[in-house]
Specification:
Strand content: under 5%
Distance between the termini: 35 Å
Order of helices and strands: HHHHHHHH
Number of strands: 0
Number of domains: 1
Length: about 170
Protein backbone atom coordinates (compact mmCIF):
# COMPACT_ATOMS: atom_id res chain seq x y z
CA UNK A 1 0.00 0.00 0.00
CA UNK A 2 1.53 3.31 -1.06
CA UNK A 3 1.02 6.67 0.65
CA UNK A 4 -1.63 7.83 -1.81
CA UNK A 5 -3.73 4.71 -1.35
CA UNK A 6 -3.26 4.87 2.43
CA UNK A 7 -4.50 8.46 2.53
CA UNK A 8 -7.59 7.74 0.47
CA UNK A 9 -8.38 4.52 2.32
CA UNK A 10 -7.74 5.74 5.86
CA UNK A 11 -8.95 9.35 5.71
CA UNK A 12 -12.40 8.20 6.77
CA UNK A 13 -11.16 6.62 9.99
CA UNK A 14 -10.50 9.78 12.05
CA UNK A 15 -13.89 11.20 11.07
CA UNK A 16 -15.84 8.07 11.97
CA UNK A 17 -13.74 7.40 15.08
CA UNK A 18 -14.30 10.93 16.36
CA UNK A 19 -18.07 10.42 16.01
CA UNK A 20 -17.97 7.16 17.97
CA UNK A 21 -15.48 8.57 20.48
CA UNK A 22 -17.64 11.62 21.18
CA UNK A 23 -20.86 9.62 21.50
CA UNK A 24 -19.37 6.93 23.74
CA UNK A 25 -17.41 9.42 25.84
CA UNK A 26 -20.42 11.71 26.18
CA UNK A 27 -22.73 8.88 27.19
CA UNK A 28 -20.15 7.53 29.62
CA UNK A 29 -19.65 10.93 31.24
CA UNK A 30 -23.36 11.68 31.51
CA UNK A 31 -24.14 8.22 32.93
CA UNK A 32 -21.01 8.26 35.11
CA UNK A 33 -20.07 4.93 33.59
CA UNK A 34 -16.32 4.42 34.03
CA UNK A 35 -15.87 1.64 31.43
CA UNK A 36 -17.72 3.60 28.75
CA UNK A 37 -15.86 6.79 29.63
CA UNK A 38 -12.54 4.95 29.40
CA UNK A 39 -13.59 3.46 26.06
CA UNK A 40 -14.48 6.91 24.71
CA UNK A 41 -11.17 8.32 25.91
CA UNK A 42 -9.28 5.44 24.30
CA UNK A 43 -11.09 5.98 21.00
CA UNK A 44 -10.01 9.63 21.03
CA UNK A 45 -6.39 8.55 21.61
CA UNK A 46 -6.58 6.12 18.68
CA UNK A 47 -8.22 8.82 16.54
CA UNK A 48 -5.22 11.07 17.15
CA UNK A 49 -2.75 8.30 16.40
CA UNK A 50 -4.40 7.47 13.07
CA UNK A 51 -4.86 11.15 12.13
CA UNK A 52 -1.08 11.64 12.08
CA UNK A 53 -0.26 9.26 9.19
CA UNK A 54 -3.43 10.31 7.37
CA UNK A 55 -2.23 13.91 7.48
CA UNK A 56 1.34 13.02 6.54
CA UNK A 57 0.16 11.11 3.45
CA UNK A 58 -1.87 14.11 2.27
CA UNK A 59 0.97 15.60 0.26
CA UNK A 60 1.60 12.42 -1.77
CA UNK A 61 -2.17 12.14 -2.29
CA UNK A 62 -2.21 15.71 -3.60
CA UNK A 63 0.52 14.86 -6.09
CA UNK A 64 -1.49 11.82 -7.14
CA UNK A 65 -4.61 13.78 -8.09
CA UNK A 66 -3.10 17.00 -9.43
CA UNK A 67 -3.73 17.25 -13.12
CA UNK A 68 -6.68 14.87 -13.12
CA UNK A 69 -9.78 16.16 -14.94
CA UNK A 70 -12.00 18.24 -12.68
CA UNK A 71 -9.43 18.62 -9.89
CA UNK A 72 -9.07 22.25 -8.87
CA UNK A 73 -5.93 23.31 -7.03
CA UNK A 74 -7.74 25.80 -4.76
CA UNK A 75 -9.95 23.01 -3.44
CA UNK A 76 -6.90 20.94 -2.56
CA UNK A 77 -5.30 23.92 -0.85
CA UNK A 78 -8.43 24.59 1.23
CA UNK A 79 -8.54 20.95 2.32
CA UNK A 80 -4.82 20.92 3.11
CA UNK A 81 -4.94 24.16 5.10
CA UNK A 82 -7.90 23.07 7.25
CA UNK A 83 -6.48 19.56 7.71
CA UNK A 84 -3.76 21.09 9.88
CA UNK A 85 -6.43 22.40 12.28
CA UNK A 86 -8.04 18.97 12.37
CA UNK A 87 -4.71 17.30 13.07
CA UNK A 88 -3.87 19.72 15.89
CA UNK A 89 -7.34 19.26 17.34
CA UNK A 90 -7.06 15.48 17.21
CA UNK A 91 -3.59 15.47 18.78
CA UNK A 92 -4.61 17.80 21.61
CA UNK A 93 -7.81 15.81 22.18
CA UNK A 94 -5.91 12.53 22.12
CA UNK A 95 -3.21 13.82 24.47
CA UNK A 96 -5.71 15.14 27.01
CA UNK A 97 -7.69 11.90 26.72
CA UNK A 98 -4.53 9.87 27.32
CA UNK A 99 -3.67 11.94 30.39
CA UNK A 100 -7.25 11.52 31.62
CA UNK A 101 -6.94 7.76 31.15
CA UNK A 102 -3.57 7.53 32.87
CA UNK A 103 -4.22 10.06 35.61
CA UNK A 104 -7.72 9.32 36.70
CA UNK A 105 -8.60 6.03 35.07
CA UNK A 106 -11.90 7.89 34.47
CA UNK A 107 -12.82 7.83 38.16
CA UNK A 108 -15.09 10.66 39.12
CA UNK A 109 -13.91 10.87 42.75
CA UNK A 110 -10.94 13.01 41.70
CA UNK A 111 -11.57 16.66 40.84
CA UNK A 112 -8.61 16.71 38.45
CA UNK A 113 -9.83 13.48 36.86
CA UNK A 114 -13.28 14.98 36.35
CA UNK A 115 -11.81 18.13 34.81
CA UNK A 116 -9.65 16.08 32.44
CA UNK A 117 -12.59 13.95 31.36
CA UNK A 118 -14.81 16.98 30.77
CA UNK A 119 -11.96 18.70 28.90
CA UNK A 120 -11.61 15.59 26.76
CA UNK A 121 -15.32 15.69 26.02
CA UNK A 122 -15.14 19.33 24.94
CA UNK A 123 -12.08 18.66 22.80
CA UNK A 124 -13.83 15.66 21.24
CA UNK A 125 -16.58 18.03 20.07
CA UNK A 126 -13.98 20.34 18.51
CA UNK A 127 -12.19 17.38 16.92
CA UNK A 128 -15.40 16.07 15.39
CA UNK A 129 -16.17 19.51 13.97
CA UNK A 130 -12.74 20.01 12.46
CA UNK A 131 -12.58 16.44 11.13
CA UNK A 132 -16.03 16.76 9.60
CA UNK A 133 -15.22 20.05 7.88
CA UNK A 134 -11.88 18.72 6.64
CA UNK A 135 -13.67 15.68 5.22
CA UNK A 136 -16.18 17.93 3.45
CA UNK A 137 -13.37 19.99 1.95
CA UNK A 138 -11.61 16.82 0.83
CA UNK A 139 -14.80 15.39 -0.61
CA UNK A 140 -15.38 18.30 -2.97
CA UNK A 141 -12.00 17.70 -4.61
CA UNK A 142 -13.19 14.62 -6.50
CA UNK A 143 -16.91 14.34 -5.76
CA UNK A 144 -18.58 16.76 -8.13
CA UNK A 145 -22.00 16.03 -6.62
CA UNK A 146 -20.80 17.51 -3.32
CA UNK A 147 -19.24 20.43 -5.13
CA UNK A 148 -22.50 21.10 -6.99
CA UNK A 149 -24.45 21.23 -3.72
CA UNK A 150 -21.88 23.62 -2.23
CA UNK A 151 -22.04 25.80 -5.34
CA UNK A 152 -25.82 26.11 -4.99
CA UNK A 153 -25.37 27.24 -1.40
CA UNK A 154 -22.65 29.76 -2.29
CA UNK A 155 -22.85 31.35 -5.74
CA UNK A 156 -19.61 33.30 -5.09
CA UNK A 157 -17.71 30.05 -4.50
CA UNK A 158 -19.18 28.60 -7.69
CA UNK A 159 -17.98 31.60 -9.69
CA UNK A 160 -14.47 31.28 -8.24
CA UNK A 161 -14.38 27.59 -9.15
CA UNK A 162 -15.61 28.28 -12.68
CA UNK A 163 -12.82 30.84 -13.06
CA UNK A 164 -10.28 28.29 -11.74
CA UNK A 165 -11.63 25.66 -14.15
CA UNK A 166 -11.25 28.10 -17.04
CA UNK A 167 -7.71 29.03 -15.95
CA UNK A 168 -6.71 25.34 -15.78
CA UNK A 169 -7.64 24.88 -19.45
CA UNK A 170 -5.07 27.41 -20.65
Amino acid sequence: MDAVYFHFAMNHFPVIASIFGLVILGYGVLRRNDPLTSTGLLIMVVTALVAIPVYLTGEPAEEGVEGLPGVIETLIESHEDFAMFALISAIVSGAVSLVALLFSRARFESTVGRILVWASLGLAVVTLGTMGWTAKLGGVIRHTEIRAAADQASPAAAETRRKDDHDDDH
